[in-house]
Amino acid sequence: MISRQLAISAAVLAVAALCMGLFVWHMRGRATQTEYSAADARPVAPPAAGPTEPVTLYLADDATDSIRPLEIRIALPEGRQQRAEELLRALMIQYLGKDSTHSLGAGSEVRDVYLVDPGLVVIDLNQAFADSHQSGILVEELTVLSLIKTLSANIPGILQVKILVNGAERETLAGHADLADHYDVAAVDRLVAQMGASQAH
């Protein structure tokens, strides 16, 4: 028969082992959380500073189902890729403002813009941009046209645009606008011009 003292010692050891296991599990969880936090702490590039210059943003307008130009002044860096990033940053500020004519979901942003070669631009949207976007043929098309036209109107030489979501290809923006292929800038320019002409009549 096990003595009372031996039973108590065994119980104390079992409790100590359990407490140690819980402590190790807790510390492992904290280490993992710290690791993820560090990985996600990517620096956000600050807006460009310096002298401003005039640019034309092309804003989608849900009230008129059209694209309208907006002339503003912003600071732009020298490099084409950095200029593209600043142009889309300025466009997103317009869309996420309280007086926006074309609402985007909270947290929507353009992650990156890549000039793959002189004629091709890749726009990488974040997941929130696509997941919270209104679903509909026209409203999605207006978003795509706005992004492309804003770049092509201010940066010469862009012939094609490819849109990614979170760094990966996606078939549609929110169920309708086709993101599987490249957009031809000349075709986008013609479509935006047609929208402007129809609004003028």
Order of helical and strand elements: HEEHEEHHEEH
Number of helices: 5
End-to-end CA span: 102 Å
Shape: globular
Q: Beta-strand level of the residues, as a percent range? A: 15-25%
Number of domains: 2
Structural Rg = 26 Å
Mean pLDDT, all residues? 83
Structure described in brief:
By secondary structure, the chain is α+β, with helices and mostly antiparallel strands.
Notes on the protein architecture:
It is a single chain. The protein is an alpha+beta fold. It has 2 domains: 1-41; 52-200, no CATH class. 46% of the residues lie in helices and 21% in strands. It contains 5 helices and 6 strands, in the order H-E-E-H-E-E-H-H-E-E-H. It has helices spanning 4-40, 80-95, 127-131, 137-154, 185-200, and strands at residues 52-61, 66-75, 110-117, 120-125, 160-165, 183-184. Strand 1 (52-61) and strand 2 form a beta hairpin. Helix 2 packs antiparallel against helix 4 and helix 4 crosses helix 5. The chain is globular and about 100 Å long. The model is unreliable at 22-45 (pLDDT under 50).
Which key terms come to mind for this protein?
201 residues; alpha+beta; 2 domains; four-stranded mixed β-sheet; 6 strands; 46% helix
